[in-house]
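User: Fold this; C-alpha cells only.

Assistant: Input:
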Amino acid sequence: MHKLAEFAIKAHGGLVRWKMFQKVSADLTQGGALWSLKGKAGLLDKVHVEVALTREWASHSPFLAATQVSVFEPPKKVAIETSTGRIIEELRNPRDSFKDHTLETPWNNLQLAYFVGCAMWTYLNTPFLLAEPGVDAEELEPWKERGETWRRLQVKFPANIVTHSNVQTLYFDQRGLLKRHDYDVEIAGGTPGAHYVDEFVDVSGILFPTVRRIFPRQSDGKALAEPLVVSIDLSNILLS
C-alpha cells in the first residue's frame, strides 16, 4: 500500500479498527440538481442507507414506497424488494443498461437504485478501499485550495470493484483526512465531478465526514461553484 494511503487510513481510524465491523448505516438528507435532471426529484430526499464493508452491497430504505428497499449487489444485479425480501423488480448486469447515457439521460427506478448504491458504497468505504487487493495508487503533485495544501493520490481500481470510474483522485489535508474526491461518472457519459467532504464525526473510533457537496469539475481540475450537483448530509451513523 502507498505510504499516503497508509497515512490516510490511520488518520480515519486505522485498518485494524475498521476490520472489526461488517456494516455501516446512516440517515441521509439529499438534494442538488442531479435528481431533477434524471427525472427522480424528491424520491430520495430523506432515506436510510446501509452498506457492507466486506463485500460490495448497499441498500436504501424506504425506496420509492414505505415498504420497499433497494438492493445493490454488483456486478450481477440491482433490485427493488419488499422489506421482507420479496423481489419486486430486478435488473441483471445493470451497468450495461447505461450504455450511451449522458448526464441528461433519465434513469428508470432500477438505474436510480444502482447509482445511489454504487455511490454510497464507495463513499462510506473510502479511504479504506485503498487497502483492497488490486488497488493501485500514485501520489500526484500537491494541490492548493481554500488556503490549504492537500496531498493527492491518484487511485486505479481493479475491474472487480464497481465504482464511478476506475481512475479517481483523493485529496488529503496535513492530518491525513479526506477533503475532496474526484471521479468521472462513467454511467452518465463520464461526467467529471469534484466531491468535497467536511464536518467529521467519530463513530466507534472511525472518522466519517457528515457533509458532502458535489460540483462539476473543469478540465484544469478546478471545481465550478455551481450548479450544486448533489448534496448529502449524514446523521445517525452506526457501525456494526
